[in-house]
Amino acid sequence: MKKIILKIGGMTCSACSSGLEKYLNKQKGIKSANVNLVLSMATIEYEDIKRKDLDKYIKDAGFENLGEFKGIDEKEMDHKDKNHLILFGLLLIFMMYLSMGHMLHLPNIPYINKTNPILLGTVFLIITLFFFYYGKDILKSGFKNLIHGMPNMDTLVLASVTFSFLYSVYGYIAICLGNASALEHLYFESTCMVIYFIKLGRYIENKSKEKTKDALKKLVQITPQKAIIKKDEEEKEISIDEVQKDDVLICRAGDKIAVDGEVVTGKTYVDESFITGESTPVLKETKSKVIAGSICFDGYIEYKAEKIGKESTISEIVKLVIEATNTKSKIQKLADKISGYFVPIIFILSLLTLIINLIVGMSFEISLTHMVTVLVVACPCALGLAVPLVNVVSSGLCAEKGLFLKNSSILEQVRHIDTIVFDKTGTLTYGKISLFKTYNYSDYKEEELLNIVANIEKNSSHPISNAFKIKYALEVTDFETKNGYGLTAKVNGKKYNLGNEKFLTKLKIKNTHQQDYEDLVKNGCSIIFVIEEEKVIGLIGVKDIVRDSVKKTIKEMKDKHLEVIMLTGDNETTAGIIAKELGIQKVIANVIPKKKEEEIKNLLNQGKRVIMVGDGINDAPALITATIGVSVNDGTDIAMDSADVILMNNNMQNILDLIEIGKSSYRIIKQNLFWAFFYNLCMIPIAMGLLSPLGINMTPMFGSLAMVLSSLTVVLNALRFGRYKKWRRN
Length: 730
Fold this sequence. Notes:
The protein is an alpha+beta fold. The protein contains 26 helices and 25 strands.
C-alpha cells in the first residue's frame, strides 16, 4: 500500500472537493482518498497502479494534479488580482451609474444615456463581455464540472449569468430593431455584478484561508536555507539541499541547527521552543540529539547529519499535521455529503421557480429574475468551508502547543473524554532514573555487580536502563525482553534475569530478602531483582523524579471533573507513594502490558471515554485500545506509532489544551454549520419570490452580495477561533 499527498488545482467550493473525493474513491487501485478544500490537497492510498494513473483520474474528474506536496506554498496573493478587482470595480460603478444614475437625479453622461438606447445597450454589452473574460476561470470551472457530472458552485454561477446574459442579448437585439422600451429589461449589470462579487468573495476568502496556514508556514520557515560543513579541516557554506547523511556540520552561537543530527564535539544550550513549546534552553553535548531549526544560544558544536529532507523532524511534523487536516471527522463527512447533493437540488429549485412563477401569472422577465437569483444566492461554499477551515486552524493551534495529531477526528472525540489514565515511569516522571541503593548478596564487588547489570540493561529501551553506566564491556548474548517482567541474557556464559517481583514469582524463586525489599519500597523505589542462574544475588533500588507541573495539571483535571488513574507495572507501594504526592486517588499497579490493555477495555466497557498517556513498548497495546492514545516525545518509536497524539514537549498541561481545543473547535463548527444552513433557509425562499406578496424581493446582484457575505461569515468565525487565547497556557 502506497500513500501520497498531492496538491490539486481547480477546486473552488465544497462540491468540487466532495465530487473529486467521491470520484477518486470509485477508481480501481485507490483504497481511500480524502480531499482537503482549504489546503487544496488530496491524500490518496493506492496499490497496483502507477502515479500516472492518479494524474489521469484527477484530470478525468476535471481537476489538475499540481504534483506531490513538498511544503506550504509561501507565495503571496498575486498583486494582479488586487489590481483587477480595482479596475473592474470602477467599471462596475460606471455601469451602475449609467443604468441607475437617473434614479438619483445624477447628471447624464453625454451620448451614453437613455436618449441613445442602442449606444447605451452596446456599451453595456461590451463591458459585460469584458466581465465574462474576467470571470473566465469561474465559468470554465462551472462548465467543466457540469460536463464531468460534478456540478459545483461555479456551475450555479455559469447557469445564472448565462441565462441573464442571453435574455439581455435578446433585449439588446429588440432595441436594435427599434423597440427602445426593451432597455428596461436588460440585465447586463446584474451579470457583471454577480461575476464581480464572486471574484471579490474568492479574493477575500483566499486571503483569509492563507491565515489558517500560518502555524504550518512557521514550521516550514524554521529550517535555515544554508549550513556550514566541515570537511578536511576546512569550513564551507553550502545550501541545505547539498547536505548529505554523515556530513559534519558546524553551529555557533546565534546560528540555527541545519538538519537533525548528533553532536560530535562541543557544548551549547539550544532553544527548541519552536517544536516543544518549552522556553527553557536545553544543554547539548557529545552524543546529544539536535533538531533542525534549534537556535544555539552560546558555545560551539560540531554535529553529524542524520535526518535530512523529508526525514527531518520538521518535515515529519508538517506532513503529520497536513495528513491530520486531510482526514475527516463524522461531522465533516456529513457536511460534505449534504453539500454534494446541494448543487443538483438548487438546479431543480431554480427550474421550479421559473415554472411556478409563470404558472401564477408572473411575466417571463420577473420569473427569469427569480430563477437567476436562486442560482446566485445558493451557497454551498459556506457549508463546505464550515468544518475544514476550523480543522486547519485547530490543527495549527495544536502544533503551536507541541500537540501533533494523526487524525482530525481526534478533535471531535476528545470533547467527550471523562477519564485520563497515566503510565508512571517516563510519563508522570521524567524517566531519568538514578540509583538509590544496592543490596549485594554475591561474591562480586558492588561495582562488578552493577557493571553486569549495566551491560545487560544497555540493550533495553526502558527508562530504568538509563540508571546504569558501563565501567567495562562484557560479552552479552541471548538478550531478550520479557514485557511486563524484565530482561534475560547471558553474560560471559552465565544466565541472568533482571526484573520485578512478578518475574521472581514467574521463575518460581522465593524472595528471601523481604526486609531489604520493603525498605526500598518505603523509599519509593522501583526495584530490580538480580538473578544469576536461579539465585538472587542482588537487589537494586532506583528512583525517578516527578515531572514539573504534573501535580498542578492533575489538580486542574480533577477540578474539571476528569477522573485521573495511574496504571503502572511498578509495585503498589512505590506507585502509591508517587500517587499520593500527585494527588491521584486511583492506582492500578503490578500490571503487565496485556493487563494494561485489559484495564483500558474495562473502563471503555463501563462507558467511559479514555485518554491513555504512555511512553514505552509496554504501553503500546493500551494506547491503541484507548479512545485516544497520547505518547510523550521521550517515548519509544512503537509507543509513538501506536498513539493518536504525540506530545512533543512532554508537558501534561497540554492534554488539557487538547481537550479545550477540541471542545472549542466543535462549538465553532456547529456555529458555522448553523449560519450556513440559516443563510440558505432565509435567502432561497426570498430568491424564489415566495415573499413577493409581502413586498420582499431580491435581485441577482444583491443575491451575489449576500452569498459572498455568507462565506465570509464562516471564514471570519473560523479565524476568530484562531485568535481566541483564553484557554491557552503560556
